[in-house]
Amino acid sequence: MKQLFKLRFLILILLFAGMSQVIISCSDEETGEDEYVGEDAFVLSLAYQGTDGNFTYYTVQFDDVMNGSLSAIGKGIDHLGYYTFNQVDNKIYATGGFELTDIIAMKKNTAGELEESGGVSSFSNSLNDVIKGEDGSLVAIEMSNSSDVVSLHRINPETVSVQDSKTTAVSNLTDLTGPSYSGMVQAGNYLFVSFYISDPATFATGYTDKAQLAVFTYPGLEFVKVIEDDRTGPIGGFGTSSGLIKDNSGNVYALSHSNPANGYSQFTKEAAILKINSGETTFDQSYLFDFNSVTGGKTTAHLVYLEGNKVFAEINMQDRSEQGAWSDSPLKPAILDLQAQTVKYIDDVPEHSGLGRKLAATSLYDNGYVYLVVPEDINSYVYRINTKDYSATKGAVVEANFTAGFFKL
Length: 409
Hints:
Blueprint: H1 2-17, E1 42-49, E2 55-62, E3 69-70, E4 77-80, E5 83-88, E6 91-96, E7 103-108, E8 114-120, E9 129-132, E10 138-142, E11 149-156, E12 161-169, H2 170-173, E13 179-187, E14 190-197, E15 211-217, E16 223-229, E17 244-246, E18 252-256, E19 272-276, E20 289-290, H3 291-295, E21 299-305, E22 310-316, E23 331-337, E24 342-345, H4 359-362, E25 363-366, E26 369-376, E27 379-386, E28 392-398, E29 402-408
Parallel strand pairs: 3-28
Antiparallel strand pairs: 1-2, 1-29, 2-4, 5-6, 6-7, 7-8, 9-10, 10-11, 11-12, 13-14, 14-15, 15-16, 17-18, 18-19, 19-20, 21-22, 22-23, 23-24, 25-26, 26-27, 27-28
């Protein structure tokens, strides 16, 4: 199962990496410009493919991402393997994938340098995701097709040590084989986990007629129930971890797309966003953000909540019937209004390929702007998107195969 998962993930990575001719092997002996160590640093986790085909991720600070070029050669903290990155408060957490089962924290020291600050490697499977709970704890999940349990963990963000863990039998979630993780948020007294059904052997998605998510207590992590809605299809998809988002009032939104470009072998319902009102554990039957009515058949697998009912999205500009399987493309950034149910495209950014990764980690929202790395032909560039007037400015060249994280510390 791990090997097939790895293969699917590598297909996405190689499709993206193939757009860049940057193939660099970094070592401690290589030197570059001094890494920025001042205040309010932009931090990028940049991936480089070595001559052996493996990727190494370098997490590096920069003072300016809108001019010149950005490179990690001879700088930063390196991690060899297949990692994902998430920022929670003043730390960045790297979690391993496939055979790796660790979580590593990075933060600034008193000199302004990035340093590792503890980690855990005792999990049975790779962590699918790490989010921040409203009590300040980290919440992590293991949900593997090869396991008959779902494991939830509360982790101390300072010591990066496990505070509490609970396991729930997969049979409580579904009688089907192959529940796959697609998103997680914590709101009030509950933790919500979305999933879809994907065949462990072929990754085929033969069950696309309803949305499902599991409800757990918080902070107890005890299983409560599964809720369903047949107005749309499964929530989330492969690798993006954006099936669920939460607004500033504690309302939870669930994204359904069934995109072939993001791991679906079929689609049988219209793409839509559902809502769970703050404090409740059922879908609001009066709310349905129908993508077909506002985009003419376009969908998205990528959402990041901004503020004021606004969401940053990467819209797939091909109808689902035309999308390339596992391609995560062609994408166009847009701002969604969850209340008005409108879509505003960012016309200054060209259509591009994605990574099939969590957009909340690979983009940065800061002071009214979204920063995003966009591949164009050979090179990739930072774009700074104004979320108020929907304009964008092209910035620095990014000298890497791809960007796995974009943060600010």
